[in-house]
Specification:
CATH class: Alpha Beta
CATH superfamily: DD-peptidase/beta-lactamase superfamily
Strand content: 15-25%
CATH architecture: 3-Layer(aba) Sandwich
CATH topology: Beta-lactamase
Number of helices: 13
Number of strands: 15
Order of helices and strands: HHHEEEHEEEHHHHHHEEHEEHEEEEEH
């Protein structure tokens, strides 16, 4: 997945673009940071180093936190070892196996577990990759609540008229949220000719957002609403939709609606594309605790005190199956992965995630660096850990069973 189109100055002055890029890459290499724009080709050590400081590598915009920080009281600590279907697993073993830098478990707004590894700490930021998708979709709910977007049934072209005549003619806002547009798309990260590889290299032209420039070239191959297909480009379009409808940058709107009023502890940063716009489908860097707080916000229905940020019932629908993804017990909501037991999750490549279980008032946030982008064995182990935490909380609630 290509996410870096610009290299930040690393303490050197340059007299030409070519020379500047070369000096920046040499400086990055000397600092142990990657110089290849494709994250899939970074070494594990480079990812360990870069994921905690993405703002050093490229242009970002700040998601400002406020002056009031939400307190997270300590709850009863989880045990150091949990029972899984494959035997007992300690927290240390789990974090090492998942290569987690940060892990935070909240229950009912209290910290049951908070652990850090890899020289990472509670005040440090880590990148999110596609976890950002779930945050962006939540801004659609906020824009509806604020009256900027009238209805999920509205045609997407009402808000992005540049897409008229493209494959997105006749696609609704809701179909974009659920990735059921029917538009032809290739999400293969390791195929250099795929859409997900090529659209990130599109340059802005005449002031037009590069997302629009690429996405308007796509054609429809299925009736909208009849087929689910994972499509990062469409989340980038959701970002364009929110920015156009609100007249605000995504960073500004997220700060205004959630980051400041909900009491996130630290500023976050969002990577920008070649057009100077936030990448809607990726790349918010924040503390693990603040990611957990966003999970708490979603679990509580998007309310801050008595103030509703999103329409009533938004997260109840966003976090339940709206599209069949062909996997038993799972589905896709409004940019959230859903499970038939009522839980839902935001997930990003290389092991980023926010797991939300409203039934148990549980949020689990983790940031790490898997050896590969989406290894199946790591997903299985992570799901087993989630289940082990759920089972332990159930045993607490019914100690006699």
């Amino acid at each position: 997945m290509r996410i870096l189109g610009k290299w930040a100055m690393l303490g050197a002055a340059c007299i030409s673009l070519t020379a500047c890029e070369q000096v920046q890459k040499v400086a990055a290499n000397a600092a142990g940071l990657p110089t290849d724009e494709n994250v899939l080709f970074w070494t594990q050590d480079q990812r360990d180093n870069a994921f905690r400081q993405m703002e050093v590598l490229t242009t970002t915009r700040t998601i400002e936190a406020g002056d009031s920080i939400r307190e997270l009281p300590a709850g009863k600590p989880l045990p150091k070892t949990l029972k899984t279907e494959n035997g007992d697993v300690s927290i240390d073993e789990y974090m090492a196996e998942q290569r987690l830098a940060g892990l935070v478990v909240l229950q009912d707004g209290k910290i049951r577990l908070e652990e850090y590894r890899m020289d990472f700490g509670p005040d440090d930021r880590w990148t999110s990759f596609s976890v950002a998708k779930s945050l962006v979709s939540s801004l659609v709910g906020a824009a509806i609540k604020d009256g900027f977007i009238k209805s999920l049934d509205d045609p997407l072209t009402t808000y992005i008229p540049e897409l008229k005549g493209s494959g997105y003619d006749g696609v609704s806002v809701e179909q974009l949220l659920t990735m059921t547009s029917g538009v032809k798309w290739n999400e293969d990260y390791e195929d250099k000719g795929s859409d997900v590889a090529r659209f990130n290299t599109t340059k802005s032209k005449d002031g037009v957002d590069p997302v629009i420039l690429y996405m308007k070239t796509l054609v429809n191959e299925a009736e909208p609403g009849t087929r689910w297909q994972y499509n990062t480009g469409e989340t980038n379009l959701i970002g364009v939709l929110v920015a156009k409808a609100t007249g605000k940058s995504l960073s500004e709107y997220l700060s205004e609606k959630v980051w400041k009023p909900y009491g996130m502890a630290k500023d976050a940063v969002w990577i920008l594309n070649d057009g100077g716009k936030e990448i809607g489908g990726c790349c918010i860097s924040a503390t693990t605790r603040d990611f957990a707080l966003f999970g708490q916000f979603a679990m509580n229905g998007g309310k801050i005190g008595d103030t509703a940020v999103v329409p009533e019932g938004w997260f109840a629908k966003a976090g339940t199956k709206q599209a069949d993804i062909g996997q038993p017990g799972a589905g896709y909501g409004y940019q959230w992965w859903t499970f038939d037991d009522g839980s839902f999750a935001a997930q990003g490549i290389f092991g980023q995630g926010i797991f939300i279980d409203p039934k148990r008032k549980l949020v689990i946030a983790g940031n790490g660096n898997w050896p590969r982008a989406t290894p199946d064995d790591k997903k299985v182990t992570r799901n087993a850990f989630y289940k082990a935490v759920q089972d332990y909380l159930d045993s607490e609630a019914t100690p006699d069973k």
